[in-house]
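tool_log.txt
---
The assistant was asked to compare two proteins side by side. It first ran the structure predictor on the initial sequence, then on the second. Raw inputs and outputs are pasted verbatim so the downstream comparison step can read them without reformatting.
(1)
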Amino acid sequence: MRVIHPPEPYTPDGRPSVYLAGRAVDGDEWREQAATLLATSGYDGTVLDPFPRHPAAGTGRFAAWAPLGWQSTTIRCADVVLFWEPAGPITVADLYSRQVLSGRGSLVVGWGPDTAWRSGMPGRLHHELPWLTVHTTLAATVAAALQQLAALRAA
């Protein structure tokens, strides 16, 4: 399994790819946990992590986000977008309405039980996208991403 961060370029190579979208505040440990869950499942594809691994010295933690082209280009190449605790239902719906997902790409969404009840977000997501399952743990969200990849492979 390989993990790619900005600004490292990504070119699809025929291996499956998962883009880790979602919460970027309060740390990014969930991204590392998701990558570990993918690796321990035997996933041998590419993980596209838009959170910069090494921001330039003295520029602050979010400085590497400045060239947003990496994120907008790379998410369009992903086979599956794993969206953990998105900022809101509009953010998720935008992936569909703006046709960000490739013709064969898919989306899985999860929201942790410790934060979901405070935000009311799963209910809002269900209102906006009633067909979308919102998983309640990161492990369940990763498992759903792996199921989506298997379905894409079988198609």
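(2)
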Amino acid sequence: MAGYENNNHNAWASVQIMPSDRLELFATTTINSASATIENFSYDAGSLTSSLNGLDFALHSQTMAGYSDLDFKRIGQTAGFHYRVTRNLMATGALDYARYDDDEPYLVDVTGRRLSVFGGLSWIF
């Protein structure tokens, strides 16, 4: 009988400051961590009514549980502003940083850091 274990933890904090009627400053920090695994996973080939070509039940029983492993941590920080240029026009800018640690890579190791800059204009009806 297969058993599934997982742990997920998420936390975030946000700040919003309005130093004037036209300007809003904001910042958000997020922290995520998760781990999961399947244990004692096995196929019972005896219950099949026909064979499946190319599927090695013994091999899959030994290795499938390892494919389910998940263990990552992510920390993100976003800071930015909204500035009301006119009654209807708003400018927005933000800087976003994230660090991702993948301790159990599966297809590809996505461990790394990312820095993004966002900017835009909004028309308010």
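---
observation on (2): The domain at 3-45+53-123 is CATH 2.40.160.40 (Porin). The chain has one domain: 3-45+53-123.
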